[in-house]
Amino acid sequence: MLPDPLREQALAVAVADFDADAVTGGKFDRGELTLEIAPAKILSVCGFLKYDQKFVRLSSVTAVDRLPAEPRFEVVYHLHSVEKNQRVRLKSRVSGADPAIESVTSVWRGANWYEREVFDLFGIRFLNHPDLRRIMMPDDWEGHPLRKDYPITGTRI
């Protein structure tokens, strides 16, 4: 359900009208709109934003480890509408037990490497990704270095 402060934001209202269950929260602060999207709805909302709302550019995909909070991870998408000169940030929370979310590579091909980086460094799987494998760390690397519980001390070789 769309929070009351966001009812003044046309884009937030458009997303809520598209799918009333998609928006779980959000805020408008310092001229920036952030929408919290249910993980199961991320692909459809991204498609709506690209094709109906003209957010044709995916600026980045990243993640935040909120350990010890649960859901542990936040997957963050930065979108840009060149035509409207408007930006929006989408956040979707995923569980730490089995971190997975639908890939948006079918909407923006450029999501491919961003999602591979998030997978490599945080261990979040992107379902239906065309080539989900490590991109930064060696193939035999153990663990995911940007997780808060990743060991930072120990024997160095």
Strand and helix map with partners:
Layout (H helix, E strand, L loop, with lengths): L9 H9 L4 E7 L2 E6 L4 H10 L5 E9 L7 E9 L4 E9 L5 E3 L8 H12 L2 E3 L30
Parallel strand pairs: 2-5, 6-7
Antiparallel strand pairs: 1-2, 3-4, 4-5
Name some characteristics of this structure.
Beta Polymerase, domain 2, 29% strand, two-stranded parallel sheet, alpha/beta, single chain, five-stranded mixed β-sheet
Give a written overview of the molecule:
By secondary structure, the protein is α/β, with parallel strands linked by helices. The chain has a domain at 4-97: Beta Polymerase, domain 2 (2-Layer Sandwich). It is built from 3 helices and 7 strands, in the order αββαββββαβ. A 5-stranded mixed β-sheet has the order 1-2-5-4-3. Strands 6-7 form a two-stranded parallel ribbon. The longest helix has 12 residues, at 111-122.
Question: Can I get a quick summary?
Answer:
The chain has 157 residues and is an alpha/beta fold.
The mean pLDDT is 95
Count all strands and give the number. Answer: 7
**Taking Cα atoms only, what radius of gyration do you get, to the nearest Å?**
16 Å
CATH class of the domain at 4-97: Alpha Beta
Distance between the termini: 52 Å
Order of helices and strands: HEEHEEEEHE
Principal-axis shape: globular
Low-confidence stretches: none
* DSSP summary: helix tally: 3
CATH homology superfamily of the domain at 4-97: NADH:ubiquinone oxidoreductase Nqo5 subunit
Report the biggest beta sheet as strand number plus sense, adding barrel if it closes: 5 strands, mixed
Report helical residue fraction.
10-25%
Give the percentage of residues in beta strands: 25-35%
Question: How would you write the strand order of the largest sheet?
Answer: 1-2-5-4-3
CATH second-level architecture of the domain at 4-97:
2-Layer Sandwich
CATH fold-level topology of the domain at 4-97: Beta Polymerase, domain 2
Helix vs. strand class = alpha/beta
